[in-house]
Amino acid sequence: MSSKEREYDKKVLHLESLKELKDRKFQKLDDSTGKWTLKEINEQVIVITGASSGIGLVTARMAASKGAKLVLAARNENALEKLTAELKEQGASVVYVKADVGKEQDVKKIAETAQETFGGFDTWVNNAGVTIYGYAMDVSIEDMKRMHDTNYWGVVYGTRIAINHFKERGNAGALINIGSLFGDRGTLIQSTYAPSKFAVHGWTESIRMEAEKEQIPVSITLIHPGRIDTPYAEHARSYLDKQPTHKGMIYPPDAVAEAILYAAENPMRDMYVGSQAKLLNLLGTLLPRFTDKLMEKWIPPTQYKDQPSNNRENSNLYQPGYGLHERGTNQGWIRSRSMYVKMSKHPILTAAAAVSIGIIFLTKGKKSK
């Protein structure tokens, strides 16, 4: 088939989809919840940006193990090529796209590849992200703009493409945006990173309301990860003299991948990975001044190791970072799972357990009187 014929077919399909949208309203399959019914993972085509390391890499491997077809995107083509070969050897259907999500044309190329290879996609995960360690007044405007190109505009480009795709085809799909605990609450040292995630959170909430109002068949989820054991700090652009890291309670990237894939099958508004993410959100809302003081004391020493930093030269802000590493070199209490994610997946059982515990304590209190 020639390129002109393919282009004609695309236009015909597009016009047919628009006519179908005009002739009918979308029907929600579960009127009791008002939520869309999503496909099982093993029936889905999933797009993952930032798939060459960390959360994206773990999510790709986990999704492949569950039978999903994958479209993987990142700037590190060598890592993507090796990952694709690895997953294909295990029987997965995978295609990769070298792409910089800070460039709209590259994001369009991801969607085009999904359409040409699998006939579209069912879940789009906006995961790609970069960070900067340094006090705000030390960081160059150029570096800040570059970070926002990836963290915010990359999400905007992916969101618009995903929503238009689901709207045109008429079948419900999932859009999953990766936020941060620092998208709910400002911070020190990553003070230029936090606003990029605040923007993602505001964008996600706003576009969700517009999609609901227009009855567009899309479930939009915002993931709020706490501190995660990935090469995040190693990839960071740093203005610090010491090596960036995470310290304290740290969660595995598997917990974030678990939340992502759960949201791909079950419409969720928000999912917090790690109780610290939810706690910081609540503290900042209820006790803002206390939270300021707490973070001023607590945050700085948890952001770096006692060794020299070389991150300014080796960061992934302007070039691909090293790939195929799920974990970082963080120092702290690295958990094996996130109980908060487990509870989010089973809210009724969690509520029942909480009520039961409350009844037990009340009963004991009455007996002791």
Automatic annotation (TrEMBL):
MF terms (GO), sorted A to Z: oxidoreductase activity
Keywords: Membrane, Oxidoreductase, Transmembrane, Transmembrane helix
Stretches the record annotates as Disordered: 301-323
Organism listed in the record: Niallia circulans (Bacillus circulans)
Family stated for the protein in its record: Belongs to the short-chain dehydrogenases/reductases (SDR) family.
Listed name of the protein: Oxidoreductase
Transmembrane segments: 346-363
One Pfam family cited in the UniProt record for this chain: adh_short
InterPro entries named in the record: NAD(P)-bd_dom_sf, SDR_fam
